[in-house]
Write a sequence for this structure.
């Protein structure tokens, strides 16, 4: 008999419509509703990206489908059924676990569509999924991180190469590359959280594979919570590059994200581009992984490894 495995694919989640933004934002803020100004600001940002739609939903749907196809193609001895579990929108993480159990599966693997472990990001997804699995008696194991998987590094390196070629006639050493990821509150450092180091490891591996010498790491999309967040912020990195005349050409490679969504399409493509234009810098960004076959291969490898 062919073994059936549920794969809980965990992702951030995005609102369904403009009217849904308030509930979504309130969920992100752990039940505290945003002020009218904060809400309007977020609505404006969503409306500014590709026609005000929510690209993360479609991108997650496609990634989940592509992962299921890849798993079943690569490992015909097992039937994999993928389920979504979203952190801040329906179907929520708990809904995904419940669906796996309702479908009669007893064994599952959880994997987050984010390669780097932090207790505040991936750890939070795992905790909620584990609690629901325990309640319903589901046997679930988790992929914690996959930030150095060779296929992930290869996919990112391909994108860096492709983007470097867009700087026509500019020598590679004269292009400054900034690897970025979502900032987190600085307090994670006291908890010896692996997040910053894992991000540097990914960045170093991609830099080595593409022969980069002129690169650094920067944080993006920090929240406004009053407490300090990890820096330097990517916008300040751009200002320093200009002030210190480090380069006129800059490439941002958001290694902490795997999909096109607000933090890419607004924070980088609109906000960082505006800052770069004001500073007179030529800024490009690498394409997102989305359903890249190498990324799907990396994900299917790490999911399967949990079964052995
Ligand atoms: O396109 C979309 O609809 C969603 C884009 C999106 C992604 C994303 C990823 C991460 N976040 C992480 C941490 C935090 C922390 C706070 C926080 C707040 C927001 C807000 C929006 C938002 N995040 Fe997010 N995040 C995305 C969107 N995030 C919108 C609220 C408004 C704002 O601050 O801009 C602060 C919460 C608080 O107020 O206490 C912390 C991390 C990731 C990457 C890992 C992952 O994908 O899980 C970490 C995509």
């Amino acid at each position: 008999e062919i073994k059936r495995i549920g794969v809980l694919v965990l992702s951030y989640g995005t609102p369904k419509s403009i009217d849904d933004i308030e509930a979504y934002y309130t969920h992100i803020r752990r039940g505290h509703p945003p002020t009218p100004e904060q809400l309007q600001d977020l609505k404006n940002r969503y409306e500014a990206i590709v026609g005000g739609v929510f690209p993360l939903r479609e991108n997650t749907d496609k990634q989940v489908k592509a992962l299921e196809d890849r798993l079943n193609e690569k490992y015909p001895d097992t039937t994999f059924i993928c389920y979504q579990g979203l952190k801040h929108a329906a179907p929520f993480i708990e809904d995904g676990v419940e669906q796996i159990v309702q479908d009669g599966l007893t064994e599952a693997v959880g994997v987050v569509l984010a390669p780097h472990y932090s207790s505040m990001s991936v750890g939070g997804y795992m905790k909620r999924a584990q609690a629901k699995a325990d309640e319903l008696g589901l046997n679930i194991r988790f992929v914690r991180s996959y930030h150095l998987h060779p296929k992930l590094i290869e996919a990112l390196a391909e994108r860096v190469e492709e983007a470097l070629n867009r700087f026509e006639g500019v020598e590679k050493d004269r292009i400054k590359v900034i690897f970025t990821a979502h900032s987190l509150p600085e307090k994670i450092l006291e908890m010896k959280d692996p997040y910053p180091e894992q991000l540097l490891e990914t960045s170093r591996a991609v830099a080595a594979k593409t022969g980069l010498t002129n690169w650094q790491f920067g944080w993006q999309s920090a929240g406004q919570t009053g407490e300090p967040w990890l820096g330097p912020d990517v916008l300040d990195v751009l200002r320093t590059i200009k002030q210190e005349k480090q380069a006129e050409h800059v490439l941002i490679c958001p290694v902490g994200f795997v999909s096109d969504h607000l933090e890419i399409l607004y924070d980088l493509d609109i906000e960082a581009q505006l800052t770069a234009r004001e500073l007179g810098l030529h800024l490009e960004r690498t394409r997102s992984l989305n359903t890249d076959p190498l990324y799907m291969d990396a994900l299917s490898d790490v999911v399967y490894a949990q079964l052995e």
Summary: The CA atoms of residues 119 and 278 lie 37 Å apart.
